[in-house]
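Let us begin with a simple case.
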Amino acid sequence: MISPTECRVGLLAQLSLLGLLASCVGRPAGFDEGDEDDLGTTTEDSDSAGDSTEGSSTDEVGTTTSETGSGTETETGVVDGCNPVQFADPELEVRVRLRLGLPDDVPIDAEAMAGLDRLILDGDVHSLEGLECALALEELHLGGSAIDNLAPIAGLPALRELFLSVSGTPDIQPLATLPALEKLEVLLFDGFDVAILAESKAPLSRLIFTSSVLENPQELGALVSLEELRLSWTLLPDLSFIGELEQLRTLWTYNAGIEDIAPVAQVTGLETLELYGSPFGDIGPLAGHPALIELGCGSSGVDDISAVATIPTLESLNVSATAVADLGPLTGHPALGSLGVGETPVVDLSPLATVPTLWRLVAYAMPNLGPLPEGLSVVEVHLSDSGLTDISPMATWAPFLHWDLMNNQIEDLGPLLAAEWMFDPDPDLCHELYLDGNPLAPENEAVVAELCQGGVSTFASEPALSCAVGSCGLMPP
């Protein structure tokens, strides 16, 4: 089983680079300046000034107040201490001014803070004090910040999206007080207590953990509004809670250490199931699933895909880097469009000729691959590093958009000229053939010239075997 340390180490280098990039670019595309709407105000008649309700108090002038986050919010929608806003960290004030477009000589008051809807903070910010006044804040990005206190954002009424990547392990109790939270993304957090999220009444629908260590992970079952759960380099070996998540549509994991997927069968509305890099070996429990559209089992212990034959809704299947050898269960599948079988012991691709919906085939690094079948409907093919010598069956395949045949043993391209569609391609589409790394004979120069004339772009290390047609340029294979 993968240790928590191993789960976190794998992405540290990449994440450090991401942090550096974030500090360089500031705010990503999409974080546009929002409209500035004034906070609404309400007044109370003096006759009602003496009335009080639970959780509120009345000041001398008859304004009812209530506790909100780390401040006190009045019925005028203003938090005490927000006229002007007091920032403990000058860098936070700089970021807020930049977002609001306010010069240094203009005080930031509650009315100005009403225009703060999105904010991105990085490692230069050390305190969030002042954000308790951001009652209109909807999106907050804390990336690589040296923040140890989340109290200022407690109870923010409009906060819908929060990205949390901070040094250390601050108290996350304030997260349970965010009534509008819909999306939470957590990065590099050692000891995130899911039980705290379970206390929340927020409509949390998207939850993402990357390189983190979870405490009380079974409490995920209490987050019944979840529609999407993603875990990358974050261990979650036991999925016994998953049946409680009736709204779940996407479960996406990468190296999560999942050992048994049987509980997943209880989530009958699940559409996307990605389980890359986990040790489980049996997908039998998924047989007959009524809604599954995407299934990813790459780098797992799976060796039998018989269950797929009973999932008629499945459109995408990835079993790359597994022991799957038999594609027979895919025969006549009514919906399968994309298939990944790279780095498997598969020899025979002929069952795929009976799948008319198949448009994409990823079958790289398959040294045992036998002769190619005729009549495939695929238009995007990745068949690199598979020892191919004879490509004549490909002339019977559907008109292609992208064929990656790199690093094989192909000597002759002539058979492709027999394709009925070769000289009547769609002029609005690119037809790309990647050939680098093949021992192509010099005679293929004439073939390439004909292919080029017919609208097919070829890419190889030898200039005489390369030809880009129209607007079709060299794209990554």
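The second case is a distinct protein. As before, the sequence precedes its structure tokens.
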Amino acid sequence: MVDWKAVGKRTKKFVIDNFLPLSFLVAIIWALAWPAPGKAVINVTIMDGEIHVIQEINIILVFFISGLVLKTDDLAAAIKHKLGVTYGLISILFVTPCLGFALREIPLNPPEFSAGLALFAAVPTTLGVGVSLVRSCGGNEGLALLLTVASNIAGIFTMPLWLKALLGGSDELESVSVDIPNLLARLTITILVPSVLGKLLRELPPFSKHVKKLTASYKTAISMFSVIMLSMIVWQSLSGAQATLMDQQFVQILYVILLAIAQHIIYLIFNFAVLYYIFHMPLTDLIATGIMSSQKSAPVAVTVISYLTTDISKQGLLIIPGIVGQISQIFIGSALARYFAPKVKKMKAAAASRQQAEAADDDNGAAKPDIELTSKSAKSLTSTEADLEAGASTPLTPPSEPAEAAAADVAAPASEAAPAGDAVTAR
């Protein structure tokens, strides 16, 4: 008989553990199969169609929640890992975006696919997925969190420059405009400001106590709500681009999928090779820095795309590489967790054994002088007993002439002690 209760529990756990890719999958299928609702939602605009109201609300809520649930208790401790922090930020913000120059030259059709891959290379690391993967692998979670916070704040200022270098002046992307001041202002308003407000609400009285309790009690529900907001952005963009997407050759979409996977694998190989062979980084720091330096954030990519063009069809095409890239990062990260987690567990067990052995050696060292003292005392006692036995069994003789004075001192005690000597002999 089927235990439906157990099946329900397993299903619930699977859905929660894989809520992000499942939500993306639902958004994609819904947008392609029935685009009308998504089109209706995304067409709610203000400022002559420049701002899509619902989409903007979704973006602001995603980053407000990220600030609201952000725990910074471990950040101070993570700062001491200077090599991991320095390398991670340089790799995320300045090294990995360079791959975008190669990706944009790949002759995909339509060119928005190549542009989407290049754009995905320019965004900072993932907001929450990367930290979760580092935790699953047994890496330094505090370091991963610090790289997430620092790179996403700094990325607001580096992304416009990279996007200008990667996409600016492209004849094939006429509707894509990289206006650095405008992009910087909008990223600040929709990413930085909501994140800071959420964090302030978490830390400042009188709300901090209630906010921390709320986010702890409903951690899973809040995380799932954030994912739903992100999926709504994807759903709206793909719904608007449904007709254009359905006209594309399947082989071109397959190329995008393979290239997005290859992009992440290249990042992983490069970062782990540098960290392991050149910097010889400790395992837990290696895991955190390597994974976070190789991740790219789909939510940030989607946000940026919504500001680069108001053409909904273009948005849908540009967004595909980021969605595929995020999903590939999750599944590849799961494989890394199965590889690294046992190694970290084994390393920690070995370290614990060494500590126990060292503690035992210290205890033995402290007890050694007492043992030596006891040994010496035993030897002294044995020697004394031997002397007493020898004295008791040796007959008293008249002292010789040279020792007459000394014998006079010994003779009286010896004669007085004779009964005791007899008693000892009898005993």
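The chain is about 80% helix and 0% strand. The chain has one domain: 19-351.
Keep these points in mind for the review questions at the end of the chapter.
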